[in-house]
Write a structure and sequence with these properties.
The protein is an alpha/beta fold. It has one domain (about 1-124): Rossmann fold, CATH 3.40.50.1240. It is built from 4 helices and 5 strands; from the N terminus they run αβαβαβαββ. The chain has helices spanning about 1-5, 20-35, 50-60, 75-85; strands at about 15, 40, 70, 100-105, 115-120. The strands form 2 sheets. The chain has a 3-stranded parallel β-sheet. A two-stranded antiparallel sheet has the order 4-5. A hairpin with an 8-residue loop joins strand 4 (about 100-105) and strand 5. The longest helix is centred in the N-terminal third of the chain and has 13 residues, at about 20-35. The termini are close together.
Length: about 120
């Protein structure tokens, strides 16, 4: 999956991860494959019981970063992506090992993202 990210030219300027072991392992694997040289930022805003607005607040705290990769947990990631796309309910199921790219014109108080792509493990 992460090799697919490299082919898609994913080039994070910041990697954010939940402080939980599995998310850190995923973030470290991504950093290695994507040749990310900086520190992985651990944040409580990505723990499983966090909320989509928590995740958005963390992204907004790093608004100067042009490309942020997030390693977190389900069902938080599915709920967050749906919320960032303007849905009030879960529109998608973000499978373990999936990657999604959302673009934002601005990083205002309410996210208005555009889904550019979603790669699931079955298509990688």
């Amino acid at each position: 999956m992460l090799n697919r990210a490299r082919k898609a030219q994913v080039n994070p300027t910041l990697i954010l991860a939940s402080p939980y072991r599995r998310a850190i392992e995923t973030a470290e694997m991504a950093a290695k494959i994507l040749e990310y040289k900086s520190e992985i930022a651990r944040t409580e805003r990505l723990v499983p019981h966090a909320s989509p607005p928590d995740v958005w607040a963390e992204i907004r705290a790093h608004r100067d970063e042009p490309s942020i990769l997030i390693a977190g947990h389900e069902p938080l990631l599915s709920a967050t992506i749906a919320w960032m796309l303007g849905s009030t309910r879960a529109m998608l199921e973000f499978k373990k090992g999936a990657l999604a790219r959302l673009d934002f014109a601005t990083i205002g108080s309410d996210p208005r993202g555009v889904l550019q792509w979603l790669i699931t493990p079955k298509v990688s």
